[in-house]
Design a protein that fits this description.
With 432 residues, the chain is of the alpha+beta class. It folds into two domains: 104 residues, Helix Hairpins (Orthogonal Bundle), CATH 1.10.287; 310 residues, Bira Bifunctional Protein, Domain 2 (BirA Bifunctional Protein, domain 2), CATH 3.30.930.10. The strands form four sheets. It has an eight-stranded mixed β-sheet. Strands 3-5-4 form a three-stranded antiparallel β-sheet. Strands 6-12-13 form a three-stranded mixed β-sheet, with no helix packed on it. The chain starts with a helix and ends with a strand. The model has no long low-confidence stretch (mean pLDDT 93).
Length: 432
């Protein structure tokens, strides 16, 4: 969440930042400002009452020490009256106001960093750099679904029979290729210094709230309930490994020598993709369940922007090693994710569409998630704790990488060459 001190000190700057992100959260900001005044008035009334009672109590002690029983009695009457007045401050009202204040804070997205380009949509995202150039085919390339079904790698009919629309099923060499891609990515990132984690796929609501999925994106999540009778509580299937990995530092005060933390994980991911029906209904691009290797950094505040460049380079290294045509773009203010203050997207070339497709988003969230999680570090032994900065990025989406390999390495005979870096993991150099 946004630093409350910043909102109070510079509300116009916050308004401008939210406006640059589309302005949808401006009502939440105005509600927060109104409630913050009310909440501080309640707190002041409580503090004033306590101060008055403490002062009177000290005076009672002095009167008794001077054996002035009449004055002591009079002061005790004032104390009783002050306590009655303090009781008039409705504790339930104070709690209600604070809860509403927090809800308003949770509705506001992160503010964009000053280096983020202004814009309204993906059309305004500048290209940062181009990687390997697209291959020019002397035949009409098949899309990954047609090619995968032709080679017996993908079976969307079987997936629909089991789970309905927007699910995928891999068979034989297709399943083996998915396993090989995952192993390649995890090995690559482990060699770059990331600790491999295998987290749970179901998490508590406060974990989803910590990284910004709740309450804003409840409709996109799959929710279940842990059966504990009266103690039953909701659990959510993770939409990305960013959620459990980042929350590993929730509620912690880390020693400075532990930073930066670098973690990677392979997990299936689950999203209802609410509002996306009619988009990318074919193939592996937009499924309810998909596989991803995630990268997460936890850093000092002054190191996070540099860490974003390194994290993005680590994700891009997978595409470079596999010789996948790609580019890096800088997301504009109107196209960034809810928790991000600065994002680079990696996009791979899809020959069947003659266009680039996102395969990774690498984001610096600043202290936005850390404030929600109360994740801090102590910069020196006697220093006050500070909020850490969190970063995350796909390193990369496995299904989309599978699709990109099929489309970019096909030949006119319908075979698919396996990228050289992947051959030791797959065990063959061609699919046919």
């Amino acid at each position: 969440m946004i630093d409350p001190a910043l909102i109070r000190k510079a509300p116009e700057a916050v308004r401008a930042g939210l406006k640059n992100r589309g302005g949808a959260a401006l009502p939440a900001l105005e509600e927060w400002l109104r409630l913050d005044i009310k909440h501080r008035e309640i707190l002041k009334a409580v503090e004033d009452s306590r101060a008055k009672i403490n002062a009177l109590s000290k005076d009672i002690g002095k009167a008794k020490a001077a054996k002035d029983e009449a004055r002591a009695a009079a002061l005790m009457t004032e104390v009783a009256k002050a306590k009655a007045e303090a009781g008039g401050v409705d504790a339930q009202e104070a709690e209600k106001v604070f809860a509403a204040l927090r809800r308003a804070a949770l509705e506001m997205p992160n503010l964009p960093h000053e280096s983020v380009p202004l814009g309204k949509s993906e059309a305004d995202n500048p290209v940062v750099r181009a990687g390997r150039a697209p291959v020019q085919f002397d035949f009409k390339p098949l899309d990954h679904q047609a090619l995968g079904e032709k080679l017996g790698l993908l079976d969307f009919a079987a997936a629909a029979k089991l789970s309905g629309a927007r699910f995928s099923l891999w068979r034989g060499a297709g399943a083996r290729l998915m396993r090989a891609i995952t192993a390649f990515l995890l090995d690559l990132h482990a060699k770059a210094g990331y600790e491999e984690i295998l987290p749970p796929y179901l998490v508590l609501p406060e974990v989803m709230e910590g990284t910004g999925q709740l309450p804003k994106f409840e409709s996109d999540l799959y929710k279940t309930t842990e059966d504990g009778g009266e103690q039953s509580r909701p659990l959510y299937l993770i939409p990305t490994a960013e959620v459990p990995l980042t929350n590993l530092v929730r509620g912690e005060i880390l020693p400075p020598e532990k930073l930066p933390l670098k973690m990677t994980a392979y997990t299936p991911c689950f999203r209802q993709e609410a509002g996306s029906y009619g988009k990318d209904v074919r193939g592996l691009i937009r499924n309810h369940q998909f596989d991803k290797v995630e990268l997460v950094w936890i850093t000092r505040p002054e190191e996070s922007l540099a860490a974003l460049e390194r994290l993005t380079a680590d994700a891009e290294a997978a595409l470079t090693s596999l010789e996948i045509p790609h580019r890096v773009i800088h997301l504009c203010t109107g196209d960034m994710g809810f928790s991000s203050r600065k994002t680079y997207d990696l996009e791979v070339w899809m020959p069947s569409e003659s266009r680039y497709r996102e395969i990774s988003s690498c984001s610096d969230c600043g202290d936005f998630q850390a404030r929600r999680m109360n994740a801090r570090f102590r910069p020196a032994p006697q220093a006050a704790p500070q909020f850490v900065h969190t970063l995350n990025g796909s390193g990369v989406a496995v299904g989309r990488l599978f699709a990109a390999i099929l489309e970019n390495f096909q030949d006119k005979d319908g075979r698919v060459r396996i990228p050289k870096a992947l051959v030791p993991f797959f065990g063959a150099d061609v699919l046919s």
